[in-house]
Design a protein that fits this description.
Blueprint lengths: L1 E5 L4 H12 L3 E5 L9 H11 L3 E4 L6 H4 L3 H22 L2 E7 L23 H16 L3 E6 L2 E2 L6 H8 L5 E5 L3 E2 L2 E2 H12 L5 E4 L2 E2 L3 E2 H12 L4 E5 L1 H4 L15 H5 L5 E3 H11 L3
Parallel strand pairs: 1-2, 1-3, 3-4, 4-5, 5-10, 6-9, 7-13, 11-14
Antiparallel strand pairs: 8-12
């Protein structure tokens, strides 16, 4: 199978390419310098030349706060860029797996979001533009997967774990929010699942994070320091008390993942196990 992967310089794209090659698939990866997804003509030229059997679309604008001041640019990437990919997938008759986010929901309440829920109320530019990408995919294609993830960390790129470990070098105590609830997602584990999916025809909407239950960012930070052997104190604060974010964040990022098992996919390992393996992969 020949699979085109966008966003190969990001956390997830990097791991997806490695997973594909590990399985003997032909992975053809591109970053923005090689295929700017906002340029429809370039997308058509590259995809027409590669002729993939499937596309795993990882490229996105993910800087949530910066998105608030760059709505036009963010929409070009997350919505228009995704539509450009979907248009070419339709021409070529190939599968598309689009990686989306819990931010398409408003994050209210305490019930886990179902993958087929259509009660979309994004709180910020990032969430709105990722939703527009989802809609472009579902309106144009029949052979598609939309996989929503949350709280992502990987070896290649910046993330919450690296930030906590860096700040702990100069701070004896750190304030971390305790009223945003979700589950971390390790890109190494997620990449395995995405490749499992693309090898099937079990299309539709899915949610994917690591197992291990729902936690707060504060809980996550405490476990990071415990496993890393740090004595850094974690001070729980509300989102309102923290008060530094330009973009509104969802309080409820609980994603129901039962559809994975219902469709025969293996769920991701426990997030604490993922964290243990991740800490062995990085320098800190």
């Amino acid at each position: 199978m020949k699979v085109l992967v966008t966003g190969v310089s990001g956390q997830l794209g990097y791991d997806v390419v490695n997973e594909l090659r590990k399985r003997g698939c032909q992975a053809v990866g591109f970053d923005v310098s090689e295929m700017d997804i906002t340029d429809g003509c370039k997308v058509a030229e590259v995809m027409g030349r590669v002729k993939p059997d499937a596309v795993i679309h990882c490229a996105a604008w993910t800087a949530v706060d910066a998105a608030e001041d760059n709505e036009e640019k963010v929409r070009l990437v997350n919505a228009d860029g995704t539509k450009n990919i979907a248009v070419e997938c339709k021409k070529l008759g190939c599968k598309l797996l689009y990686v989306s986010t819990d931010y398409v929901f408003d994050g209210q309440g305490d019930k886990p979001w179902q993958p087929d829920c259509k009660d979309y109320k994004p709180l910020n530019v990032y969430g709105q533009t990722k939703l527009e990408g989802e809609l472009a995919v579902s309106e144009l294609l029949e052979k598609y997967f939309v996989v929503r993830i949350a709280w992502v960390f990987g070896k290649n790129g910046n993330n919450f774990i690296k930030t906590m470990l860096r700040l702990a070098q100069t701070h004896a105590a750190l304030r971390v929010v305790n009223d945003q609830i979700g589950t971390p997602t390790y890109t190494f584990d997620l990449a395995r699942l995405l490749v499992d999916m693309i090898e099937t025809e079990k299309y539709g909407y899915y949610h994917a994070t690591n197992e291990g239950g729902y936690i707060s960012w504060c809980d996550f930070a405490k476990e990071i320091f415990r496993q890393a052997g740090y004595t850094t104190e974690v001070i729980p604060v509300t989102t309102a008390e923290y008060g530094l974010s330009k973009a509104a964040r969802p309080f409820n990022s609980r994603l129901d993942k039962s559809k994975l098992i219902e469709n025969g996919f293996n769920p991701l390992p426990d997030w604490k196990d993922a964290l243990t393996r991740y800490l062995k992969e990085i320098d800190y």
